[in-house]
Amino acid sequence: MKKQQGSSGSKRIRSTASPEQKTEILKARAVALAREPEEQAEEERIELVEFLLAAERYGIESSYVREVYPLRQFTPLPCTPPFVLGIVNVRGQIVSVIDIKRVFDLPERGLTELNKVIIIRDDLMEFGILADSILGVRPVSLKDIQPSLPTLTGIRQEYLRGVTSGRIVILDARKLLSERALVVNAEVES
What we know:
By secondary structure, this protein is α+β, with helices and mostly antiparallel strands. It has helices spanning 19-34, 100-104, 155-158, 173-178; strands at residues 2-5, 11-14, 45-53, 56-61, 65-70, 84-90, 93-98, 116-121, 126-131, 133-141, 145-146, 160-164, 169-171. It is built from four helices and 13 strands. It has a six-stranded mixed β-sheet. A hairpin with a 4-residue loop joins strand 8 and strand 9. The longest helix is centred in the N-terminal third of the chain and has 16 residues, at 19-34.
């Protein structure tokens, strides 16, 4: 190929290919562009709502999260287990809130304006989980989820789906929502 400068100062490219060769090149390009993209094996992913609990990173599958709500005011409930923080009014709907740090026996830091309530739900149950703060939403490959860490023992291990290579502890939302130990259904004598 030979470069030539025209009178307008722009560069033109002159090809030594014959018109038939140019036609063949253009046909080959058209065929290549018209081809269906090769299907890449898509890895299965889940989307996590990532949050902090006692300086540890946790995640819960976003398909179980109805919404994340700021903890402004809550009403404590007397005669409930220590893990029940209370109830909150979310646009006219009363939602109970569980302090999962107490369930997991994690250190408490008190409540701040950063605390959020992650409202999780399925067809039969709905409640909120108190989070110290929300870090965001991230996709995670199912291949990246490893079995639970040996340091996460006891009750924490029961409610875990696994841990990512980035050290995010993934809660098993299905198990949390179906766990009878988290349901308070007791009558109090007056």
